[in-house]
Amino acid sequence: MRSSPRSLAWAFALAACGEPATVVPADGGSHPDASASTDLPAPMDAGLPEVGADVPTRDAATSDVPARADLGLDAPTADVPARPDGGGAVTLRLAVISDLNDSYGSTTYSSTVRAAVGALTGRIRPDLVLVTGDMVAGQMAGLDYAAMWAGWHRTVTDPMRAAGIPMAVTPGNHDASGYSQFAAERAVFVSQWSQAARVPAVAFVDRSRYPLRYSFTFRGAFFVSLDATTVGPLSAEQRAWVDAQLAASTQPVKIAFGHLSLHPVTVGRETEVLADAELEAIFRRRGLTAYISGHQHGYYPGARGGLRLVSMACLGAGPRALVGAAAASPLSLLSVEIRDGQVASLDALAAPDFTRAIARSTLPREIRYGAQRVVRDDLAGF
């Protein structure tokens, strides 16, 4: 029996990186194995090897948590200079972390996540940290969200705050899925990040829909956080908002960040993207410096048509292989230095100690999926 497009979308919405998807009947009825008073089913065969599905179609948000494995210890690396050679002073040191969650409902975090937080608050000490989604392992009925978020804040938010490092987050499909059946989880996300102590100390330009989407300036750079948790193009309304925000910015560096990527880079996530040609055109027209995204669970510093597109590796469970590569992408965080109004360096620092950069020469020269092609950024002139 062939699965309908709708049933496949539900399967993606409810899949976790380490657990197979459960398909909701195409008529939207309740599943006989539902674990709570809701029509959302509990995952079947929990603990089996990762099967890869993870996000649905656009209208609300998505899914993607894995079975824990501390990988990434043997990433091919290169020395990272303390600061780039030449030019003026570094005006902004930015770090980005992504997809830190573990299996569904987890309230604790891996040693890799804790090591990354320790490196950021100790040796690296960036001026600002961005988080491109999937902080908690939600998107399933019957989970203890209060305990999950308490675990996140205890492990990540509180140490960052104690170190005086502002942290700006964007929603992921496991944090604040935009699909209507996950509205309650989305409301918890809004509540958690609207508490005064967790709002980053940045100069907001538009915070009318914070923390789902917003814009701000920080040390001469302009940032736009997208509400990008569901597969397919953004709404026309959100695209118009992004266009207006970027058009009004006078900062030389403009960075957008969101959970889903524009184009795929990893095996098993080929269709879990925005694939939004209009948004991509807006980014080019408005001179965006880079779009940084999560969800793919693979580091790839790419470019397409003069637009820099950076896919983040995960720090939590479920690293994936880049298309055309054999091994899983090393767990890593992103370090970016901006000087003289431009990106001076952009490197992924690999686990376990986050002291060395993943060498670009070890990454595919380009990634293709159908008509979509992303070229490694150094080969594209960046």
SSE topology:
Blueprint: H1 5-14, E1 77-79, E2 90-97, H2 111-124, E3 128-131, H3 145-162, E4 167-169, H4 173-176, H5 183-194, E5 203-209, E6 213-218, E7 221-225, H6 236-248, E8 253-258, H7 277-285, E9 290-293, E10 300-304, E11 307-311, E12 332-339, E13 342-350, E14 356-358, E15 366-369, E16 372-376
Parallel strand pairs: 2-3, 3-4, 7-8, 8-9, 9-11
Antiparallel strand pairs: 1-14, 2-12, 5-6, 6-7, 10-11, 10-16, 12-13, 15-16
Helix pairs in contact: 2-3, 6-7
- Measured between the Cα atoms of the first and last residue, the distance is 49 Å
Q: What is the strand arrangement across the widest sheet? A: 5-6-7-8-9-11-10-16-15
With helices defined by DSSP (H or I, 4 residues minimum), what is the helix count?
7
Strand content: 15-25%
Radius of gyration: 19 Å
Largest beta-sheet characterization: 9 strands, mixed
CATH-defined topology:
Purple Acid Phosphatase, chain A, domain 2
Assign the CATH superfamily: Metallo-dependent phosphatases
Give the helix level as a range of percent: 10-25%
Secondary-structure-based class equals alpha/beta
Overall residue-averaged pLDDT value: 82
Based on the coordinates given, report the CATH architecture: 4-Layer Sandwich
Order of helices and strands: HEEHEHEHHEEEHEHEEEEEEEE
Q: What count of structural domains? A: 1
- Give the low-confidence spans: 1-87
Q: Just give the CATH class.
A: Alpha Beta
Could you tell me the number of beta strands? 16
Instruction: Label the overall shape.
Output: globular
